Amino acid sequence: MSEEPVSVLFVCLGNICRSPLAEGVFRSLVAEAGLEHRFEIDSAGTSGWHDGEPPDARTLAVALRRGVELTRISRRVTDSDLQRFRHILAMDGDNLRELQRRAARTAPQADVRLLRDFDSAADSRRDIPDPYFGGTDGFEDVHDIVDRSCRGLLAELRARYGL
Ligand code: 4NP
User: Fold this and answer.
1) Would you call 75 a catalytic residue per the annotation?
2) Which end of the chain is more exposed for a tag (fewer CB within 10 A), N or C?
3) What is the CA(112)–ligand 1 centre distance, in A?
4) 3-state SS, one letter per residue, for the chain
């Protein structure tokens, strides 16, 4: 069995709401499973609009209420991310199309998918809604979706890599 870490990158638009939350939740699930040493986990945004900023205060609050501390700083996704990370999880269809367009040029081997494909309770909706312009409820909903999806993703990766 290869000891190469399984690399996972979460991507949204601003890297201040959905993807830092997904990164933090996935990190905490991986830690709970005692698998930190087997994963490399990060997040980024397609826009770069909030480069250098911490996560949105509402994201931080929702995460903390659920016991997850987020310490990352926003950054824009790079071509070298697309080449380096094996599993790239987009939060919505816009992010997915942007990443697929870029990966087609620079990282044809990248496995780019929607995070919500792993949501056990998802109906036909596959986007994780952008909560930025809404109220606190939206952030709670996003957390629930992200939590279910990250559990599904981890189960899939554990089965795939025999972890
Ligand atoms: P995120 O949310 O993509 O989940 O980080 C957003 C953050 C900022 C903006 C849009 C979405 N914005 O328009 O600045």
Assistant:
1) no
2) N
3) 20
4) CCCCCEEEEEEECCCCCHHHHHHHHHHHHHHHCCCHHHEEEEEEECCCCCCCCCCCHHHHHHHHHCCCCCCCCCCECCHHHHHHCCEEEECCHHHHHHHHHHHHHHCCCCEEEEHHHHCCCCCCCCCCCCCCCCCHHHHHHHHHHHHHHHHHHHHHHHHHHCC
